[in-house]
UniProtKB/TrEMBL annotation:
Biological classification of the source: Bacteria, Bacillati, Bacillota, Bacilli, Bacillales
EC number(s) per entry: 2.4.-.-
Catalytic reaction list: Preferential cleavage: (Ac)2-L-Lys-D-Ala-|-D-Ala. Also transpeptidation of peptidyl-alanyl moieties that are N-acyl substituents of D-alanine; [GlcNAc-(1->4)-Mur2Ac(oyl-L-Ala-gamma-D-Glu-L-Lys-D-Ala-D-Ala)](n)-di-trans,octa-cis-undecaprenyl diphosphate + beta-D-GlcNAc-(1->4)-Mur2Ac(oyl-L-Ala-gamma-D-Glu-L-Lys-D-Ala-D-Ala)-di-trans,octa-cis-undecaprenyl diphosphate = [GlcNAc-(1->4)-Mur2Ac(oyl-L-Ala-gamma-D-Glu-L-Lys-D-Ala-D-Ala)](n+1)-di-trans,octa-cis-undecaprenyl diphosphate + di-trans,octa-cis-undecaprenyl diphosphate + H(+)
Record keyword Glycosyltransferase present: yes
Domain of life per record: Bacteria
Domain Penicillin-binding protein transpeptidase: 348-585
InterPro entries: Beta-lactam/transpept-like, Glyco_trans_51, Glycosyltr_51/Transpeptidase, Lysozyme-like_dom_sf, PBP_transglycosylase, PCN-bd_Tpept
Keywords, ordered alphabetically: Carboxypeptidase, Cell membrane, Cell shape, Cell wall biogenesis/degradation, Glycosyltransferase, Hydrolase, Membrane, Multifunctional enzyme, Peptidoglycan synthesis, Protease, Transferase
Presence of the UniProt keyword Thylakoid in the record: no
Domain Glycosyl transferase family positions: 60-235
Localization (cell): Cell membrane
Protein known as: Transglycosylase domain-containing protein
GO molecular function annotation: glycosyltransferase activity
EC category: transferase
Length: 619
C-alpha cells in the first residue's frame, strides 16, 4: 500500500511538473528582451530632415530659396568643420563618443540636483537624447518626456553611427529666427559657409541653441557673446583648442548681419512652382489619373495626393534649374509699368527663346505679389484676331496650298444668321490674302474658315492643348476670336512658335531640370517635336506676319531686326488688346486689358500692346 501510494505521488508530481514545464516553456517563448520591447514601442524609421530647395536662373544664380518647416541647409558629416563638432561635444556631451545614448553619471547628478530644488533644473540630456527630442518629441519639461528621450536615444544609438548622430544633431538644432542647423545659421547670420567661419564665430553660433530666445544673435548679442566666452573655456578644458587660441577668439568682436531670404522675380517663380507640379503630374502619371477621374471628389483626392508629392519633393532639398533671363524679365516689367501708368489697366508679357524652345520671361501684372492671381498663365481671354494665323490662315494654306496673292472676298458675309462685318463696317471687294491678313479684315477670315471646315481647322489646335477651348467654340465666330473662355497669354504665345521653328511644335517650358543635392537629374521635360506646319506653309505665314509689321495693323511694333513679324488682336468694345510676334530669336506675346471686363477705348489709339512689345524687343 505504501509502495503504491509512493508511486502514485511520484506519477502525480511528475505529471504536474511536466504540465508546468510545458506551460513555462510556452511563456518563455513569449518573453521579449528589453531591446525587443524598445523596438515595439519606440518605432524609429529612417530620419529625414526637411531641407531648403533652390531655384536658379539660366546663369546658375539663385532666384528663390524655398524653405520647408524653417530655414535649413543640410550638410553631411564630412563637410562640418571639426571645431563646430568640438564646440558642441565640449559643452553638451563630453562623453558622446563613449556612451550608448545616455550618461548614467550625469543622470544621477541631475536627479540629486532636481530633488534638492523640487524642480527640473538640470536635464543631463546627451546629444543623442537632444536629437531624439528635436526629431520625435516635444520640449516639455517633465519626467515622462525624459524617459521617452532615453528610449528613443537607445534605439537611435543602435541604428546610427556616432558620426551620423552628430551630423543629424547639428542639422536639427534651432538657432532662432526660423533657422535650423549650423550651416543655415552660418549662412543667415554671417552670409558665408561654416567652413569659412573663425573660431570666435563658431563659438558665438554654438551659444544659441542652449536657449535660442535668450541668446538671440540679433536681439541679445551681448548674452550670446558672454556664452561664447564660456564655450571657448569649455573647449580649452576638453583640450580641443589651446588657451592662446581661446584668448584670440575671446578678443575678436563678433557682429552679425542677417541675410534676407532670396526671393526674386515673383511672377516667374510663381509660374515655375506651377510648372513643377505639371512636370511631376506628367512623369508620375497624375495627369492621366486626373483625366480618368469619374467625379469631382476623385479629382480633388488626386489633386491632394499630387500636392503632397510635390511638397515631399521640395522638402528633399532639390535644385530647380530654369531658363529665366533676368535682364529681359526686368525689362518687360519696367516697360509695362512705364507704358501703362493707369492704375486699372494691366498687362502680361510672355517671352520664349524659340531657338532653345525655352520660356525666358513671363510677367503677371503690375505690382505683382508672389502666388497672387497670375495673368500670364491663369487668365483666359478671347484672342480676337490674334487667333487668325493658327486657326484660319495656316490651316487654309496647309490644306489648299493657296498662293498669297490669291483673291478673297472682303465684303459683308452672312451664314445661318451670323453676319460679321469688317472694322467700321467697310467693304473692300475682292482682295488678295496678304492684304486681308495684314489689315486684319474680318469677313475674309470667316469665309476662309468656312472653306477649310470648322472641324478640320480646329484639329490643328489640338496639338497646342488649349486648356479652356471647348467643343462649343467650334463655330464660325471663332475665326475672329469668339471663344467661350479663350487662351492664356502663355498658351497663345506658345502657339506662334512653330512659325519660328520650321513648323515644329513642342511646348516651351521654364524648367530645364530638377536635380537632387548631389546633382543627379530627377526630372526634366522630354522635348518631343511635332511637325504642325509644312515648310511651304511656314514660309508663307512668316511672309504674312512680316507684312503686318511692315504695312499693316502692327506697324508700331516695328524694330530693327533681320526678321520681325506678328499679329494683332482686339476683342469687341476694346476689352482686350493683343500682339504676338517674333524676331530671329524670340517669340513674344503681349496682352493689355483690365481685370474687369471694361473697355480700353480711351487708350486704344496709343496702341499700348504694340509699343510694349516694341520696347521689350528692341536691342
Amino acid at each position: 500500500m505504501k509502495t503504491f501510494l509512493g508511486w502514485f505521488l511520484i506519477i502525480l508530481l511528475f505529471t504536474g511538473f511536466s504540465f508546468l514545464f510545458v506551460e513555462a516553456t510556452a511563456e518563455i517563448k513569449d518573453i521579449q528582451t528589453l531591446s525587443e520591447v524598445f523596438e515595439e514601442h519606440v518605432a524609429i524609421d529612417e530620419i529625414h530632415l526637411p531641407a531648403n530647395s533652390y531655384m536658379y536662373d539660366r546663369n546658375g544664380s539663385v532666384i528663390s530659396e524655398i524653405y520647408n518647416e524653417g530655414n535649413r541647409e543640410y550638410v553631411t558629416y564630412e563637410k562640418i568643420p571639426q571645431q563646430v563638432i568640438d564646440a558642441f561635444i565640449a559643452t553638451e556631451d563630453r562623453r558622446f563618443f563613449d556612451h550608448k545614448g545616455y550618461d548614467a553619471t550625469a543622470i544621477i547628478r541631475a536627479i540629486v540636483i532636481n530633488a534638492k530644488s523640487n524642480d527640473i533644473e538640470e536635464g543631463a540630456s546627451t546629444v543623442t537624447q537632444q536629437l531624439a527630442r528635436n526629431v520625435f518629441l516635444s520640449h516639455q519639461q517633465n519626467y515622462n518626456r525624459k524617459l521617452s528621450e532615453l528610449l528613443y536615444a537607445h534605439e537611435i544609438e543602435k541604428q546610427y553611427t556616432k558620426e551620423e548622430i552628430i551630423e543629424l544633431y547639428l542639422n536639427t538644432i534651432y538657432f532662432m529666427n526660423g533657422v535650423y542647423g549650423f550651416e543655415a545659421a552660418s549662412q543667415f547670420y554671417f552670409n558665408q559657409p561654416s567652413s569659412e567661419l573663425t573660431l570666435a564665430e563658431i563659438a558665438f553660433l554654438s551659444a544659441v541653441p542652449n536657449n535660442p530666445t535668450h541668446y538671440d544673435p540679433i536681439k541679445n548679442s551681448e548674452n550670446t557673446n558672454l556664452r561664447k566666452e564660456w564655450i571657448l573655456e569649455k573647449m580649452v578644458e576638453a583640450e580641443v583648442i589651446t588657451s592662446a587660441e581661446a584668448e584670440v577668439a575671446i578678443a575678436e568682436k563678433v557682429t552679425v548681419s542677417p541675410r534676407e531670404k532670396i526671393d526674386q522675380f515673383p511672377d516667374y517663380v510663381t509660374y515655375i512652382h506651377h510648372e513643377l507640379k505639371e512636370l511631376i503630374a506628367h512623369q508620375e502619371g497624375f495627369d492621366k489619373r486626373l483625366n480618368k477621374a469619374g467625379s469631382e471628389e476623385q479629382r480633388e483626392a488626386i489633386e491632394q495626393e499630387l500636392n503632397v508629392r510635390v511638397n515631399i519633393l521640395l522638402q528633399q532639398g532639390i535644385h530647380i534649374e530654369t531658363a529665366l533671363e533676368p535682364s529681359m524679365h526686368i525689362k518687360a516689367n519696367q516697360v509695362i509699368q512705364h507704358r501703362l501708368p493707369q492704375s486699372d489697366v494691366q498687362s502680361s508679357a510672355v517671352i520664349i527663346d524659340h531657338l532653345r524652345n525655352e520660356l525666358v520671361a513671363m510677367t503677371a501684372g503690375k505690382e505683382y505679389q508672389k502666388f497672387d492671381f497670375h495673368r500670364g498663365f491663369q487668365m483666359y481671354r478671347q484672342p480676337g484676331s490674334a487667333i487668325k494665323p493658327i486657326l484660319v490662315y495656316a490651316p487654309y494654306i496647309e490644306e489648299h496650298d493657296v498662293p498669297l496673292q490669291s483673291s478673297i472676298n472682303a465684303d459683308n458675309f452672312c451664314h445661318s444668321g451670323y453676319c460679321p462685318k469688317n472694322f467700321g463696317g467697310a467693304q473692300y471687294g475682292n482682295v488678295n490674302m496678304t492684304t486681308a491678313f495684314k489689315h486684319s479684315y474680318n469677313t475674309p477670315a470667316v469665309r476662309i474658315l468656312d472653306r477649310v471646315g470648322i472641324e478640320k481647322a480646329f484639329s490643328y489646335l489640338d496639338l497646342f492643348e488649349f486648356e479652356k477651348v471647348v467643343i462649343e467654340d467650334q463655330t464660325l465666330p471663332s475665326a475672329l476670336g469668339g471663344f467661350e473662355h479663350g487662351m492664356s497669354p502663355l498658351e497663345l504665345t506658345r502657339s506662334y512658335t512653330p512659325f519660328a521653328r520650321n513648323g515644329l511644335y513642342s511646348p516651351a517650358h521654364g524648367i530645364r531640370a530638377i536635380k537632387n543635392s548631389e546633382g543627379d537629374i530627377l526630372y526634366s521635360w522630354e522635348q518631343i517635336e511635332h511637325e504642325l506646319w509644312s515648310a511651304h506653309t511656314t514660309e508663307k505665314m512668316r511672309t504674312l506676319l512680316a507684312e503686318v509689321v511692315k504695312s499693316g495693323t502692327g506697324k508700331r511694333a516695328s524694330i530693327s531686326s533681320s526678321y520681325v513679324g506678328g499679329k494683332t488682336g482686339t476683342t469687341n468694345d476694346y476689352i482686350d488688346m493683343w500682339f504676338v510676334g517674333m524676331n530671329d530669336q524670340y517669340t513674344t506675346g503681349v496682352w493689355v486689358g483690365k481685370d474687369r471686363w471694361e473697355s480700353l477705348s480711351s487708350i486704344y489709339s496709343h496702341s499700348p500692346h504694340l509699343t510694349i512689345w516694341q520696347d521689350i524687343m528692341s536691342n
